[in-house]
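User: Here's a chain of 469 residues. Predict its fold as tokens.
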Amino acid sequence: MQNAQQKPKPFQRAVVIGASIAGIMGARVLSDYFQQVILLDRDEHGQRPQPRKGTPQSHHIHVLLRAGQDIIEEFFPGCLQEIEASGGARIDAHHDFVWHHFGVWKTRFESEAVMYLFTRPLLEYTLFERLRQISNIEIRERTSVAGFLSSDGGRHITGVRLSDGESLQADLVLDASGRGSRTVAWLEELGYDRPPLEETGVDLAYVSRLYRRPATDAVPRDWRFLLHYPHSPHTWKSGFVMDVEEDRWIVSLNGYFKDHPPLDHNGFVDFARDLTRPDLHSMITAAEPLTDAIKFTIPRNSWRHFEKMGRFPSGLILIGDAVCALNPIFGQGMSVAAKEALVLHRLLLQCARRNSLAGLEHRARKQMARVIGLPWFLTICLDLHYPQTSGKKPLGHGFLMWYISRLMELSSSSPYVYGEFFKVLMLKNGLWTILKPTVSLRVLAYGVMSFLVPLARRANTDTLPAPAR
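Assistant: Prediction complete.
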């Protein structure tokens, strides 16, 4: 990445609404191109990692996919090592994940698929503290935005109006305020149409709590992250146990279609008993809970198609969940936000060469939509495998789900197929990676076998896999 931070900043001021991961990444990118960046957040950020009111999802499991991990490390060099030094775990994903999905265990093997495990508050705190060290970023906590400032009949956003009445002028406003973004309403006040909205209804809820991580002699295990996904469309309950800092586990259970985990201890443990495999239930019954269970609901996936609006003001860009809020069961949100921040960086680099922001918001809307396209497609395809999910199925959905089901089953025995699928899941590669001949011919051949041989004889359905050496 070319570092514009040491060059003269060509633009005056940018304002960022929201200190989510998207907002933190956005502020970091903007600091390379604007003389002043003002980051506004309603919460007060503490002196240690802790969940915030403005990010209720921070109590739950978060995964930084490889694409997001690489981008965040690019803009905050050494941050992953800081997280590891603070107790986060550096793992080999293929070796240290034990993952049951589509009724089978994925194979395990040694690889170079490095990932990091941590709580979201630790990641946010680490990055936020880095922002505090950047001289041209001003952080205003406990600050709310009441609307946009505009000129030329609303055709240009010129800043924001704060709830206390103060006006902040800006060359660019970046909305990273998440699912609760008020941009649509504020644009309507300026005479703009609402963006087309695409939704799939899932009525999902997470319930999570922290446990003291038991010693391996008390609870024998050779993994760092246990994943029990449902076997769609037959089951819709999931559970996850992940090593995090301070010798803890974060345990998250979830259920679709209002079949949600209870908050009381006995109900939480009993819900885990209903998962496709008994392993998670046996683990948490042997562990000591450290916190109460906390619930977070996700009624739907939603994508506000700002890129399809015929009229859109200059001086405004949206990023993260303010544009597209994905089912968090697939762990894509933070990495999509990082990829959007990289798009913004590349576009601002072009603007800096021209010394003009003209057309930035149009190009950003189009290019960020392309970033969203793959994770959205993967999410809705898997969610729409359930007949209870509301929403429009993509063309060829039935064959695609047959293909994905066979690919996932083949991942139980083929490190190559699993590894190629993992690259797509990590948002490093596109769909072609699992459709190319070296993968598709194996999947189709396996598919023929699936008509003749029962699943239990062609894949590992029951035995928690040991890592291959």
